[in-house]
Amino acid sequence: MHDDRLLLDAYVDGELDPAHALEFEQRLAADPSLAEELGRVEALRRAVRERLPRATASPALRRRIAALAPPRRSAPRWRGSSAAAMAASAVVAFAAGSTATWLTLGSAGDPLPEFVVANHMRALMANDTVDVTSSDRHVVKPWFNGRLPGSPRVVNLTAEGFALVGGRIDVIGLTPVPTLVYRARLHVISVMALPDADRHAARPHAINGYNIVEWSDGGVAYWAVSDLAAPELENFVRAFRAGDAEP
């Protein structure tokens, strides 16, 4: 039971890798007492978050911590020529170039689709496509609370063939945004939720082999990107928009 409690705490904190998270969810389904303990832990976390004031460091303490920090050093130069390093550099350059274009052109250019695809590509190159791993929307949605001003609607679409994998935080321009991650067979779907700027510029439906679908809901602009075939991605979006997203 002690090991189960350690795994439960790691599961709630989103610290389990996808394989162990799915294995633990199977144990939850088979063990009512363990599932009941999960409910108590989540209720306690909600109560602490909602009822206790959040502590903040005083200015004096912040100055003392800053004084202990080592001096900043210039970043070491890249060495070697591994394919992973080169690919990661390309994505960073891609996103940086898009940022420069956005700042230079303003409304004349719209790099938002490139930002969306660049973040999706970066996640595919990383060790994991998510920061929090869970197929339970009641775990994924609260994870964004406290990290970002808002959290997206999270829909369970397993019955429709789109399994929720978890969530992560991406950066669009200089703005952190919540991203949900789903999987359809071997295909990863990223769903990014951005403030709806009510921009109506014509946008591409595909970039570099990745299909894109954009829609608005409740003042939020959602962007879905994947290498799924365009009709399948549109089916996913229809299911997502029609799905139940209870709090």
Task: Explain what the structure shows.
- The chain is α+β, with helices and mostly antiparallel strands.
- The protein folds into two domains: 1-44; 83-242, Phosphorylase Kinase, domain 1 (2-Layer Sandwich), CATH 3.30.200.100.
- It is 45% helix and 19% strand.
- It has helices spanning 2-12, 18-30, 32-51, 59-68, 83-105, 112-125, 137-144, 230-242, and strands at 132-133, 163-172, 175-184, 187-195, 206-207, 210-217, 220-226.
- The protein has a seven-stranded antiparallel beta sheet, sandwiched between helices.
- The longest helix is centred in the middle third of the chain and has 23 residues, at 83-105.
- Residues 74-108 have low confidence and may be disordered.
The biggest sheet amounts to: 7 strands, antiparallel
Write down the CATH class of the largest domain: Alpha Beta
What CATH architecture of the largest domain do you see?
Answer: 2-Layer Sandwich
Rough shape? Answer: globular
Low-confidence stretches: 74-108
Mean pLDDT score = 76
Order of helices and strands: HHHHHHEHEEEEEEH
Which percent bin holds the helix content?
40-55%
Name the beta content range: 15-25%
> So how many helices?
8
CATH superfamily descriptor of the largest domain: MucB/RseB, C-terminal domain
Distance between the termini: 30 Å
Pairing-aware structural class of the strands and helices? alpha+beta
